[in-house]
Amino acid sequence: MDKTVFKNILQILIILIFNSFLAQESPKRPIKATIINDTISKKDTTVAAKESLEDVLDYKADDIRRDVPKKMIYLNKNAQVKYQDMQIDADYISIDEERNIFFARGKLDSLGKVFEWAQVNQGGKKYEVESFSYNTKTREAIAYNARTEESEGLIVADKTKKYNDSVFVMRHAEFTTDTYYISKKDTRPDYHLLASYIKMQKGKESSTLIVGPAQMYIEDVPTPLVMPFAILPFSSKRSAGILIPSFGEREDVGFFLNGIGYYQPIGEHFDLKVLADVYTKGSWNLRPEVNYLKKYRYTGNFSADIGSTVRGIKGLSNYSKTGTYRIAWRHTQDAKANPFLTFSASVDMTSTSFYNNTVNNNFIMDQSVLRTQQNSTLSLTKRFLKLPATITSTASYSQNFADGSASLRLPQMNVAINQFYLFKSKTGVRSGLLENITVNTGLNLTNSVVTESGEMFTDAMWDKLQTGLKNNIALGTNATFAKYFTFSLGATIDNALTTKTLTKYYDPIINIEVDQFNKKIAGYSTFSTTASVQTQLYGMLNFKKGSTIEAIRHMVTPSIGFTYSPDFGGSQFGYTRNYYNANGALTPYSIFDQGIVGSPSTGMVGALSYSIGNNVEMKVKSKSDSTGVKKMKLFESLNISGNYNFAAKDHPWSIISVNGQSSFFDNKLSVNTSLTIDPYKILFAPGSDTGIRTEDFGSFSVQGFNMQVSYPLSNELFGEKKDYSKVYSQKGEIRNENYFFDDDNYAHFEQAWTLNVNANYQYSRNLSRTATKMASIGLDGSLKLTPYWNINGSTHYDMVSKELAYTRIGFSRDQRSFTINFNWVPFGQYKVYDFFIGIKANILSDALKYKDRSFTQPNAPF
After folding, report:
1. Pairwise CA distance, residues 760 & 364, whole Å
2. Where is the LPS-assembly protein LptD central domain (predicted)?
3. Average pLDDT score, the chain
């Protein structure tokens, strides 16, 4: 008995010593918790219970205390626990061995508040928490005031619960992409989304945030942007999600949500976007869009607008309901894909009243509503490696919204032969007229019809269809003689075939001159020849030494030529007919008038043409130039041209044209002018506003004048650009704006500004008694209020009507992680203001936008 008691006492002492040894063991040495069930089974065997921890638990701290009865381990100061892929660093950590729970807490201040967060790192992701508990058995975790970084964003939630390694649920959470706040350079974000609940789903390559009701805050101030929900993908790959709309008001159709929709990637090369515009007065619009891209091959998109515009109140006279549609296709081929075969497409087909009734406000903002015509084109170009030819096939469709007509060209093919020399050079260096003869030729096939939109692809359209074939051959050569003169010689031959000819006659019954088209194949050929001589003359005017102006150089380029073309309106060619008009006068016309291949010229041309080109430059002294001399252009070009037709029966002298171009002040001030002068006297009958051109030569009256002036102004023109880093020794930051500070601590920065001034004056008289004048001045510029605040705008003032034309004023703000833009158009048919907020982060660049637009009618009070 004594031996048994002694044996039991010895076993108890061994256990106590062993437990004491464990309690004092170094924390750097990993331990493995194992529980042995010391019971005897019926088979007299020992059964080992399952281990509570599935991996090695490693922990350390400045102060470690173990409570054996409660199976607790307490770590204080610089505590760290490593378990599987998780590492916890905190001021305090407790380990409950019985319940399999880790609890961590940040460092407390004197008031018992956490001021230094605990750090949790799991699977390469870092989290900052006030307190954190983790169940090693269920893998569930709960964190309070946790900071979770995900891709470019940060989530700060009052409470975060982790259900497993891929699902997190957060309550009362703030989400932001402000890099200053994420890097702790600022105590609060410049913007954030405040959400009641956020669910984060993690995948192997991407994560997704499913956000409940959320409101956007800017500088902790709430904005009107409230989202019922949002899906935010965090992945380098494309992800499906909801697209947030803009909202605002248009007086004619009511309040709106514009651009609400869904985005869905389709495979590797396609994606689908479906947007909707909804208005409170019943208008709606559906906008599907498919984009496709294949690298180094092609890119393009299909888009459509299908909707209904409702204005006024049903039952009243102002009520209207209009259906609209638009179908568009864009396709661009990469130039490297196939240099010998190129295809492109630009297709826009709309209902006639689409732009006047659209509820897609984007077309109002870009002024598409002012369009009077819209064009669509398909083009296919084929080039050859060995053949010197290029074949281009096109199909085009044009809509005229003013008269409702439509023009279709299908198909249209052009075969162009590359320029070649007619004769081979004997010496390898071309010289003389024969060796320099070049030939340019091509063939053009066109099928064209102009009809009403409602007749498209009907029998009426096919009946109006015209087919034409045209060939052009141009020959030219040149040679130098007497060292300073260049002689040029050329000839042009045009051949044309068409399937329709014109017959004109006067119908006395209905009192109308009738144009009747006949289905008949007919053709014509024309030719003309030209010969010209050109040279260059120089003159120099030198000034005395020491004068500011050193010299003026004048270069004159005179040219004289002769053009001959027979009268293809003569009866011998058979291209013209005669008919008696409503006044009984015999009137000639061409059977090819109103055709797609044009008409041959009438009247013989034997004209002597002249052209005088001038270039005037001046040399002045300049200290800024290293040579001490600076060139100034007085006239870059000043050209005078006209002709005298020896074969003309009346008015052999043509209108004289003068064109000038110049630039001053280091090519900043640009001036372009044009002038037309009639050498014959114009007489006006009493009471008539239209004059008659007489044969009295020598009057030289101005019939037209145009001048365009533009000058870009900037802060750099009024002083040298400062290097603020050298002028001021102190540099600092206010909020997120960088400034330089002087000795009195006043902030300085480069306040850049630009102002483009352009003016236009037009004078047109022709044969009218009263001239038509138009004069306007335009301003377009920007001003930096601060390094990140910018104001910009443009306006035009009509000096004849004394009214402001199109005017736009805009403000923009670069606010670290997002941008703010405001644009206002106070005048014109559509008065618009536009407010836009866009997130810079790639993950939210398309998802989070806030727009507020308002559109009023032309005569509505603003």
Report:
1. 27
2. 210-680
3. 82
Residue 678 identity (one-letter amino acid): D
The predicted structure's pLDDT at residue 424? 83
CB atoms within 10 A of CB 18: 10
Average pLDDT over residues 575-584: 90
State the average pLDDT over residues 551-573. Answer: 93
Residue type for 548, please? T
Which SS3 state, helix, strand or coil, does residue 366 take? coil
Residue carrying structure tokens 């044309």: 496
Residue 720: pLDDT over 50: yes
Distances, alpha carbon 160 to alpha carbons 23, 101, 141, 216, 757, in Å: 34, 16, 8, 21, 59
Which of 822, 823, 855 minimizes the C-alpha distance to 254? 855
Among residues 297, 290, 233, 300, which one has the least CA distance to residue 267? 290
Tell me the pLDDT tens digit for each residue of 631-671.
888 888 999 999 999 999 899 999 999 999 988 877 788 99
For residues 160 and 146, the answer to whether their CB atoms sit within 8 Å is: yes
- What would the pLDDT profile of 473-483 be if each residue is shown by its tens digit? 999 999 999 88
Measured between alpha carbons, how far apart are the two ends of the chain, in Å? 110
Residue 593 burial (CB < 10 Å; 0-12/13-18/19+)? middle
C-alpha distance from residue 792 to each of 753, 785, 810 (Å):
9, 10, 5
Whole-number Å distance between alpha carbons of 630 and 625: 7
Q: Please answer whether residues 149 and 178 qualify as being in contact, where contact means their C-beta atoms are separated by less than 8 angstroms.
A: no
Indicate whether 860 pLDDT > 80.
no
Alpha helices in 24-95 (DSSP H): none
Whether pTM exceeds 0.70: no
Q: Could you give the angle at the alpha carbon of 600 between the alpha carbons of 505 and 375, nearest 5°? A: 90
Q: Give the DSSP per-residue string, 2-30.
A: HHHHHHHHHHHHHHHHHHHHHHTS-TTS-
* pLDDT cut 70: percent of the chain above it: 83
Which residue in 331, 326, 327 sits closest to 345, CA to CA? Answer: 331
CB 620 within 8 A of CB 629: yes
Mean pLDDT for 366-386 is: 86
- Which string of DSSP letters, residue by residue, matches 150-214? ETTEEEEEEEEEEEETTEEEEEEEEEE--HHHHTTSSSS-SEEEEEEEEEEEE-SS-EEEEE-SE
- In angstroms, the CA 119 to CA 267 distance is 40
The CA distance from 540 to 549, in Å, is 13
Token digits for 694? Answer: 């007489």
| Most confident residue range from 123-137, 383-397, 737-751 | 383-397
Assigned token pair, 631:
């060139």
Closest by CA position to 823, among listed 796, 852, 803, 787: 852
Pairing mode of beta strands 284-294, 298-311: antiparallel
Beta bridge partners of 780: 756, 794
Among 815, 701, 651, smallest CA distance to 181 is for 815
State the pLDDT at residue 192. Answer: 87
Asked if residue 238 lies in contact with residue 269, where contact means CB atoms within 8 angstroms, the answer is no
514 by Cβ neighbours in 10 Å (0-12 / 13-18 / 19+) ranks as exposed
Residue 37's pLDDT band, with cuts at 50, 70 and 90, is: very low
Per-state percent for the chain, helix, strand, coil, to nearest 5: 5, 60, 30
Question: What residue type is assigned to position 801 of the chain?
Answer: S
Taken in order 841, 847, 850, 851, the sign of the CA dihedral is positive
More confident site: 751 or 812: 812
